[in-house]
Amino acid sequence: MRYAELQVTSHFSFLRGASSADELFATAKALGIEALGIVDRNSLAGIVRALEASRATGVRLVVGCRLDLQDGMSILVYPTDRAAYSRLTRLLTLGKGRGGKANCILYLDDVAIYAEGLIGILVPDLPDETCAVQLRKMAEMFGDRGYVALSLRRRPNDQMRLHELSNMATRFKVKTVVTNDVLFHEPSRRQLQDVVTCIRTRTTIDGVGFERERHADRFLKPSEEMQRLFPRYPEALARTMEIADRCRFSLEELTYQYPEEAIVPGKDAQSSLEHYVWECAPTRYPEGLPDSVLKIIRHELDLIRAMKYAPYFLTVFSIVRYARSQGILCQGRGSAANSAVCYILGITSIDPETNDLLFERFVSQERDEPPDIDVDFEHERREEVIQWIYKTYTHQKAALCATVTRYRAKGAIRDVGKALGLPEDMIKALSSGMWSWSADMVGDRNLRDLNLNPDDRRLALTLKLAQQLMGAPRHLGQHPGGFVLTHDRLDDLVPIEPASMADRQVIEWDKDDVEALKFMKVDVLALGMLTCMAKAFKLIEEHKGETIDLANIEQEDSATYAMIRKADTLGTFQIESRAQMAMLPRLKPRTFYDLVIQVAIVRPGPIQGDMVHPYLRRREGKEPVVYPTPELEAVLGKTLGVPLFQESAMKVAMVCAGFTGGEADQLRKSMATFKFTGGVSRFKDKLVSGMVKNGYSPDFAEKTFSQLEGFGSYGFPESHAASFALIAYASSFVKCHYADAFCAALINSQPMGFYAVAQIVGDARNHGVEIRPVCINRSRWDCTLEPVVGDERRHAVRLGMRLVRGLAAVDAARIVAARADQPFDSVDDMWRRCGVPAASVVELAEADAFLPSLELQRRDALWAIKALRDEPLPLFVAAAEREIKTIAEQQEPDVKLRQMTDGHNVIQDYSHTGLTLREHPIAFLRKDLAARSIVTCGEAMSARDGRWLMTAGLVLVRQMPGSAKGVMFLTIEDETGPANVVVWPKLFERRRRVVLGSSMMAINGRIQREGEVVHLIAQQLFDLSGDLSALADRDGEFKLPTGRGDEIAHGAPGSPDSRDRAPEVKPRDIFVPDLHIDTLKVKARNFH
């Protein structure tokens, strides 16, 4: 008998289903099931994944949804045609609008309104009076499209229950249909399904009770097994295929229509686009369009006309034009920068006259996919652009894509451990022994290192189930800026729900789903460096009288490139990471194109394709550059014969192997996914044979293919690298010539970038910028520039109140407004005049903001705050004065407080502002460290190649790039600067707790020097976090504070002093588990 399983729950019914669509459809194919009805709860979030699984297996997808009603039982609904599908998506949008994020509130009356064209299956539990009422309503709402589900519950009276349900259905003229109510694809997933039930209900496996499934039968079964289980209901079994045949709707019927808001009245989309292109051309080329560019534009416009993409370009153009009209910095990037049309319209900044663009990387007839234009905006002003989009296109036609938040290693361990009842300290120990994004669970050796027993059954089960849970969706979030805009109502295509942020809404599909259905997506992304640049330009204009912007920055400035070659790029864009800094002295950029290569070369693709070292050797003249043919030289001449960019790979295929532009783009896409699909193999023969046919040797052709294969999905498009290089150069130029403005702007744009404020401040001081502390009478919310006496050119940076942890921006605004006419002369004066809560005054005192102008030390200021009292009412003023004179206790004694030690002050600086302008913490420990033969980081980084030594410092950054094959890169810092450390995989596994848990670390190892690039290759690692515990007792003898930047976490835990309030501890914080009164807690930034 033919059979379709119509009640299948995937793991997109979050924390209910335990299997993916791929697993369900693959199992259905193996069992001979003809169709699957995916009915996730109140959601179509996983339906596109199900469509792709259906395409891959040939098992038909029946689109459906389970509606959990407020005034009735659950109903499974399936649209029979396109119109019915739209009614279903509108119904879900209605329920989600009422329920808010992640909730759906629907009633039977709502279903009745939208029921036309929908097949409904009631899912009853017992054949009671409630079921009878529901069946009568089902008959009224759905007519011959109404059914009732017969499912086994594995109870003693199951057969009687099914018999009574069948009789009741006959009485109300509602047909029966068999369903298996599937929650997982095979029996072994039962345990995981129990665990996700515990996670959803926030209980443990020991206390979940009847919330978990009573039996393990909720897996896919072949038709023979279903016949054996339901021998008395052959008609109900046959109706599964009857329903599947009636539901002929497919998601492939959804047709996307572009919005038309940006079209010029009286013109069509293509003529509107051409109108704007010719109108904007004189702005880009005031002296006239060069013939070469004109030819490119005409070619692109012809292709855009053929593909009917003009509305898309117009939409993006309208968004960018609005942003520029409001003075919001923006720039397009990605493959869109290959387009001359995008350059003319001001969407991108890569000039086709000076760059060799490949439009087929962006738009291709063979690819038949909508283009994807990413535009970056200032991250603090992007919301203005987003709200303009909603206002222009309305909430009916515009929404953000979703993102699927999936389980990673630490999250899976944490949730599964709680569900299985592991002690909290054991869960923390397990989690601390894992790298955040690792796909590997903790091994037996790691468990023993953590003093845990690998033979513990519950612990072993936790690791096994956490492994299964990894990759499963946890919930939906909102995309940073991926908009779907439509011509008609968007909720005709996909359900929409309110976002957690006000005035935003999100569709249920992510960017991959949208791309699979060929919908248009516009990426309105945020880039912190654009915010930084905008603020820096404003500071430069206000304080130095110079007007500069991204378009008129001096090009090819020798001083800027000299700074870049020294790797003096902390805080700049793209070239500030440790890997980039290590590459800069080797590549030695001298031109803009060098910078383009610099941005692209530190990527897994070029590294895995063995392209970095050949390029560097050829650049340094150590290896000859040989081109077998002039055609290859024309393609790879600029990159010395090495295909560093995606466009290079495509051009090699086109020029050397005879690929068309579309075929070359398909090659690029297949390389991006070859590890999962094997699709690249079908291009190998064509590429190799094509190159051999054109005169290349088979060995050279094979080597070329292996390079491109290693390239994978990680290579940058050249145009994308060029777009980023523009911002990288601009940020470097501003840092080089306006270090004071750059420092202030960078701090004012936080959070962003690779480094914390402490390191930014330390770097600025190294460049001669005077940094002034937070001051109650001089600081504003943002950092500001103040004149330096005797030097009109230079300015000092006054730190802003934004750095004071716990202080609200509104309170800072009140303080600034209150002192406009007259500065504060005491704590009491400040409190009374500005009207901020006493708690905010305490935050300022703890940040030492009363010291610069009022000369009040921390404890003096805190003592003064304790004495603050409200003024008595006028009626009682005389009585209050009389009491003060006669009662000695009312008179405030003159108290001389013992001030904090220098070490204690440093701790408090870090705890309350994230930096110190006093001495570096390690400086207080230097004598102790020197006694143990531990040298400074500065001495270590200047040591000769091969020298063995030991150094120590605060751990700032931990990195384990995916291309590094398990190698961990650490950056530590002391009072002399940073040191770069390499930890090999075996040492990392042996000393995992030290690497991941230390605030301060000592490293014994060997110096490796290659030119100007220096690393310490670790051989032994020691946790010195305990040494920080004694820091509060230290006094240092130094004249002027020369604090360095480093990254410090929020607060000092465990202090019994009532004045030292412990801030909230966050999971990422790495701290010393010590009960000392003052413990320095260092927050490291971990990158993967």
Provide a quick synopsis of the model.
The chain has 45 helices and 24 strands.
Keywords:
6 domains, TIM Barrel, single chain, 5-stranded mixed β-sheet, 14% strand, alpha/beta, Arc Repressor Mutant, subunit A
Overview of the structural elements:
- With 1088 residues, the chain is of the alpha/beta class.
- It has 6 domains: 4-185 and 220-253, TIM Barrel; 269-398 and 480-528, glyoxalase-related enzyme like fold, CATH 3.30.1900.20; 405-476, Arc Repressor Mutant, subunit A (Orthogonal Bundle); 554-726, no CATH class; 770-899, no CATH class; 906-1087, Nucleic acid-binding proteins (OB fold (Dihydrolipoamide Acetyltransferase, E2P), Beta Barrel), CATH 2.40.50.140.
- Helix content is 43%, strand content 14%.
- It is built from 45 helices and 24 strands.
- The strands form 5 sheets. Strands 9-10-15-12-11-14-13 form a 7-stranded mixed sheet. A 5-stranded mixed sheet has the order 4-5-6-7-8.
- α1 links the parallel β1 (4-8) and β2 (35-38).
Distance between the termini: 52 Å
What's the overall average pLDDT, rounded? 84
The main pleated sheet reads as:
7 strands, mixed
The neighbouring-strand order within the major sheet is: 9-10-15-12-11-14-13
The value of Rg in angstroms is 33 Å
The 3D shape can be described as globular
